[in-house]
Amino acid sequence: MLIVESVVAMLEAALTTPFDVDQLQSSVNAAAGSGTKGVVSAASSIATTLSTMSTQIASAASKLQQADAKGDLEQGFKDAPACKSLSSSG
After folding, report:
1. pLDDT in tens, 47-66
2. Where are the domains of the chain?
3. For the residues 19-27, what does the mean pLDDT come to?
């Protein structure tokens, strides 16, 4: 069951990422033409959003690693043809 929960956590992180990308775009758009204060505010918002995205992805990856004690999931990804281009060894 832990594997299923880990996969769900990873999917949840992936699903919130488009929202975060939209939030980044909104920050950039708001800063355009708003002067120095707008740029500083946008930079702060962007840094916060990127930090949140990084934490979500790291957490999901950690949960997957913990759930894959035998290495079955990792081997499955390594063996999957669709994942070959993502592997540094494949």
Report:
1. 888 888 888 778 877 877 77
2. 2-86
3. 80
